[in-house]
Design a protein that fits this description.
single chain; five-stranded mixed β-sheet; 21% strand; alpha/beta; 7 helices; 5 strands
Length: 212
């Protein structure tokens, strides 16, 4: 990347974007279990394009006393108590996630991480609830700022549903693999990169350019 191209730290005013998807046992972040989480970090390549970098993925044991809605697990197909999932305790998963993101954030010279997600309020509420429940003080994530790919997709490709937005962007999406945290995070990351890079290609970024 040439010196005239913005760095990742410059692109989002010091925020480090982390694409996240969470599979849960319900819609209430305070009472319902987190069952799976994936997080993908991004970087800028030598052409100044946003691309996928690292991947974090874990299955999560329901926290003690967690509510599990049958409709939710019927929908996502996850058996919360299946030993073959290799699930880890929630506190262990989120401590590991925070450590991983802090390292990547520091290497990118960013000050704070921001959650990027499709319908971001949902995923952010579950992350915040887990961090509070497990008394994790050193969170890299901003507590309320998020980048919602639903809104961005409505603006850029005229779609709000993830599979429809991916199709409009020319991104392959297999419905049979949907509702896996890892797959949905991968596709959300691809969509976010497409939208950011497309905006740059159309001349929307950087806001001011050096004279040629």
């Amino acid at each position: 990347m040439s010196d005239s191209n913005p760095t990742l730290a410059q692109r989002f005013r010091g925020y480090f974007p982390v694409v996240i998807d969470i599979e849960t046992a319900g819609f209430n972040a305070q009472t319902d279990a987190i069952l799976e989480i994936a997080a993908i970090t991004l970087k800028m390549n030598h052409s100044g394009e946003l691309v996928i970098d690292s991947v974090f993925h874990e299955h999560v044991e329901p926290f003690e006393g967690a509510n599990i809605e049958k409709a939710a697990i019927d929908f996502n197909g996850i058996d919360p108590f299946c030993a073959l999932r290799g699930a880890l305790p929630e506190d262990e998963v989120f401590k590991s996630l925070c450590k991983h993101i802090r390292k990547e954030q520091k290497e990118a010279d960013c000050q704070r991480s921001v959650i990027v997600a499709h319908n971001a309020t949902f995923d952010q509420s579950f992350v915040n609830a887990a961090l509070a429940r497990e008394n994790i003080k050193r969170s890299p994530f901003h507590p309320f700022v998020s980048f919602d790919t639903t809104s961005l997709a409505a603006l850029t490709v005229g779609q709000t549903v993830l599979i429809k937005a991916c199709e409009a962007a020319g991104i392959e999406f297999k419905p049979s693999e949907a509702h896996s945290a890892l797959y949905d995070t991968q596709k959300t990351a691809e969509l976010f990169c497409y939208m950011v890079n497309r905006y740059q290609l159309l001349g929307g970024w950087p806001l001011t350019k050096e004279p040629e």
